[in-house]
Amino acid sequence: MPEFSDIFIAKNPEDAVNYNVLEQSYPHIALNDVTDYELSALWASLSNSRVKEIHELEFIELDSDAILYRLPEAFFKAIVALEDTDLRSVAAIWAEHDEIHWRLPHAQQKLEEIRALAKQAQQENKELYLMLA
Asked: Lesser CB count within 10 Å: N end or C end of the chain?
């Protein structure tokens, strides 16, 4: 498990490469127990399916030990479009995904935070990224 994982808003991959967890200048959420697998599982949960290749995040090469992913447009749009009435059921599916097994309140809180950040990114016409280090 990485020391930290942040989901943050950036204009594009070139801008995202400049993200620095110590600066905190980008809108972000610290999600230290979330990895690319958990986000792929969330994406699958949004469509009530299993994690497959189509649910992989877009890897962005870095010249450091950190790992950077962009949340693909289809994933981003699905999170933004998630209605309040469906949030709990998607969180329940996500919480019970293979290898995750979170408690429902924890999954629901993470999903609400990610959705709020995604909506902010949409309003700013930007994208979401995941940094692991």
From this structure: N
Amino acid found at 123: Q
Tokens at residue 43, please?
A: 């994406």
* More confident of the two residues 50 and 120: 120
State pTM to two decimals: 0.92
Rounded Cα distance between 89 and 108, Å, is 9
How close are the terminal C-alpha atoms of the chain, in Å? Answer: 9
CA angle 74, 77, 79 (to 5 degrees): 110
CA angle centred on 38, ends 107 and 133, rounded to 5°: 115
Q: Which residue type occupies 23?
A: E
